[in-house]
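Quarterly update from the structural biology core.
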Amino acid sequence: MIKVVDGNQAAAFGAKLSKPDVIAAYPITPQTPLVEYVATMVARGELDAEMVEVESEHSALSVLHGAALAGARTFTATSSQGLSLMYEPYFRTSTLRLPVVMCIVTREMISPQSVWGGQQDAVTVRDAGWIQLYVENNQEVLDTVIQAYRLAEDKKVMLPVNVCLDGFYLSHMAEKVEIPEQDDVDRFLPPLKMDYIKLDPKEPISVDPLTPGGLLTHYRKKHMEGLENAKEVFEAVDRDFGEIFGRYYHGKIEPYRMDDAEIALVTMGSMSGTARVMVDKARERGVKVGFLKLKMFRPFPKEEFRELLEGIDVVGVIDRNVSFGFSSGTVFYELKSALMGHHEPLMASFIAGLGGMDITKGHVGTVIRFLEKIQQTKRVEKEVIWMDLEEEIWEKPLTR
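Predicted structure, tokenized:
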């Protein structure tokens, strides 16, 4: 079935097809329609789930702790300040190894006051132990929500997953999406079996008691192993999904025109479509540029990046977020760290699209021009470029 839906509705369809038992969420811009769509599905009897109306995001995720521990498949979603409010149970979700799936409809953090798109909320909590997947379009939103359950519930992983979709650029923009058949989803996604721990009044146990340091260290190590396992498991999940549904997303990183590339562009999220178009335009000029779309941000796929960037002269990373600690884009410095001690190409960080600003063909075309210059001069004169503060430097593509 083909429908024209926005990203919030695509996420709701993905949740519905995954058959969660318990949903708890609190509305916040730009996630609010997602919660409304799911609540409507429950109210109409289209989704057999318990919809819990809570007074805050903190409560929403706390409700899902109890539900998940009792063996239920769970779903929630949030954005920005809502994510901040649920930070305490957010951290606890991963360290209790609960396979919750949560959409983050990404948005700038508050102050100076902003409700517009950006990835700052999601990247800020990247080290709280969740798996984070970033998507490019609404079809990928729906498909990734379904994949997220297979990944989270795999016995080698047993960790919560964020599906991160760009606020407004995906959440409120409509496009054609193929809605899978329920029978096919059921074949791909078996029922949840929480057999490693399950709350049962007939067999009472204590969950999350005061833990001594030695045991805590054991838990942290196992948690890290689960994250590492997620890399391999996700590749298998994506391949299985492709075999059933005919859509394959190349796992953790999607390469494009990288076979003979000398320059590489790296993006994450909805800007990836624009990047792909401008790579094609640069190829028409004879520029050997390729493109890598980062999907799995946590755990960071350092091994794949090292392999894909072997022999590349120059790498440019466009970030829709900032790292306050490194004064650059977040993906940029993480990638630079991952490549240390291996092949280390010249690199530059490009920050754009903050506060809901568009990332245009002009932005990406200019980035490629910068990377060409770096390749020619073999020198990075300016490592971090704030694109929206230097509008006069943009390449202006013809529009007609």
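The chain has 13 helices and 15 strands.
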